[in-house]
């Protein structure tokens, strides 16, 4: 039997409406380490988006490295496998890899290609061992695939010649998965399981309301769960913050361990324990993550009703400030209220709460040409581009234009990653 703990989307270093969340992340990592010990885990799989940005703060990096060292001290035989997500810098994830490997931690940030155009699959195959040191499974550790890494590669045809593969992102993703699975099948021994890790958006999976960045090209980047054949015992996925299985019980998003937006307040935040018996999946169990800092989202309602909700909250005045609950208020107004913030601040006086967001909801203006209020924080770059295009040309951008915009945005993000590496 081999016991795996699957988690993803830590987003260490996240700035939550301008506020740091180091204490929450530190509390989660302490709980995770205690859980690994309590469950006597053989391996920890972290399926991407370890950090929130490609250039994380030193404090965010310290959280990761302190956790790895602590895990090795308490569980010397534990295998840890990390892959980069779309928020991560692949180069940064791999930079300390030689040191981390001495702590039985395997970090994979990018795919590489051999001179003959084939995928360098060997470096993506990580052995998972039991308490006796015997290899019981192989982890197919596939980091987030950027378009530049998987499109335009040279492939060998059946006659041994080479030809240019189509410049198609999804086709490139499919090819990488197929080549890696084929290599894993050749490498596995009798009785050894195959465990796939991927940071991707699968068809049919439920996305969050506000907090997930489209990976590259809107919905076109989503891939099929059929990429993971039945001989893959378990598929550990990252990217989507809502914990869920995709069709098959063995194909799972662990979800994020903490809410990353108020829209995720009611998600079941968890890690997943998967138990393997030989080559097959023996069982899956969800382990709820305790929430170190409460979150309250009040409204939408008129101000008096919101303030009544606020007064009804049960609060602990003895909590240290770093554990005070986060608060979002959504107030419906019939007309502009210049002293709204002052009235809210007065109601919060003396309460152990941290107001992060005050949303004002005004009635729709009937005038045909009345300017529309835009909340840039929730709108996002893609929808802002669509609105700007519509206003300039009188029609929405077509799919090709949106694809060009998404590729350009990804190029900017990748350039920022290279500058930070």
From TrEMBL:
Entry superkingdom: Bacteria
Pfam family, one: SbcD_C
Annotated Calcineurin-like phosphoesterase domain residues: 2-242
Nuclease SbcCD subunit D C-terminal domain boundaries: 292-390
InterPro entries tied to this protein: Calcineurin-like_PHP, DNA_Repair-Maintenance_Comp, Metallo-depent_PP-like, Mre11_N, SbcD, SbcD_C
Function: SbcCD cleaves DNA hairpin structures. These structures can inhibit DNA replication and are intermediates in certain DNA recombination reactions. The complex acts as a 3'->5' double strand exonuclease that can open hairpins. It also has a 5' single-strand endonuclease activity.
Assembly: Heterodimer of SbcC and SbcD.
Protein family: Belongs to the SbcD family.
Listed name of the protein: Nuclease SbcCD subunit D
Gene: sbcD
